[in-house]
Amino acid sequence: MTPDYRVDPRLSEFFRHSRFATRARGTQESYVLDYRLLFTFLWQRGRNWDEIRAEDLEDYEYWRRRDANNPGRIGGSKWGRELAAFRLLYDWAVSRRHMTGSPVVLRTKQLPDGGSVKVPELAPTDTRSYNVKWLTPRAYRAWRDVGLRGYIAGGLPDETWPGRNDGRDAAFADLLLSSGLRRREAGSLLLAELPDTTVPRRYYAAHVAKATAKRADRYFYVGRSALKAIDAYRVSTRAEAVARAQ
Q1: What CA–CA distance (Å, rounded) separates 60 from 41?
Q2: 38: exposed, middle or buried (C-beta count within 10 Å: 0-12, 13-18, 19+)?
């Protein structure tokens, strides 16, 4: 919907099209936010989304990545993701003859095997393929206790801690670490979907539904300690919060 409350049926058609609809739900949500920000940028220039020029996209890339007046500048990886979203939309718009050409200008890149591929001219060159950071179990616990539970480095509660959901946040972080679930997947789980811990074992199998998994429903494994932390939160601070609400 535009700022003057008009709905463009062409965009509605695009969001229903398989090019967009087959993307994972999280990807769809991210792309929609990318479109909204670009369209707002264009609207402030007096242009609709389908009136964009290559020069407009160049200016937008500069504002997003290097303009000192933008406090929320982004890096190469984020821009690469946004550029993929724009290319998806505008390639579709050209194929449907809603536009005569895409603002995402392409160039030919030679591959090491002698082949070639078309890539956007505005493709980032500072994208890092790997950004893996490792924490030892002890370092993770220190991060969790200080950052989520409100403790000081010495292991005692911080009297100035303003948080009120420390038990919930720490249990959620333990679940993510133990299971490898994505935040959306873990956040959708109901207590009834968690494994029964009355049978002692180190790890338990559980299931995440297709509606919240990135691509398909699947099983995951989670450690007993993470499940016990959830149970402790459920019978303590969560129960107190429910009682207060009642």
Answers
A1: 7
A2: buried
Q: What is the CA radius of gyration of the chain?
A: 24
CA separation, residue 185 to residues 209, 219, 243 (Å):
8, 11, 27
| Residue 30 burial (CB count, 10 A) | 16
The enclosing H or E element of 156 equals: none
What tokens were used for 157?
Answer: 């509660």
Contact between residue 7 and residue 82 where contact means Cβ atoms under 8 Å apart? no
Q: Could you give the 3-state DSSP secondary structure of residue 81?
A: helix
The domain spans of the chain are 9-120, 164-245
Alpha-carbon span 201 to 119, nearest angstrom: 51
21 burial via Cβ count (<10 Å: 0-12, 13-18, 19+): exposed
Contact 149, 166 (CB under 8 A): yes
Q: What is the CATH code of the structural domain delimited by 9-120?
A: 1.10.150.130
Secondary structure of 16-51 as H, E, C letters: HCHHHHCCCHHHHHHHHHHHHHHHHHHHCCCCCHHH
- Considering the entire predicted model, what is its pTM? 0.64
- pLDDT mean for each 10 residues of the chain (246 residues): 84 92 87 96 95 97 94 92 96 96 92 84 78 80 92 88 89 94 90 90 90 79 94 91 91
How far is residue 119's CA from residue 106's CA, in Å, rounded to a whole number?
5
Return the bridge partners of 204, or none: 222
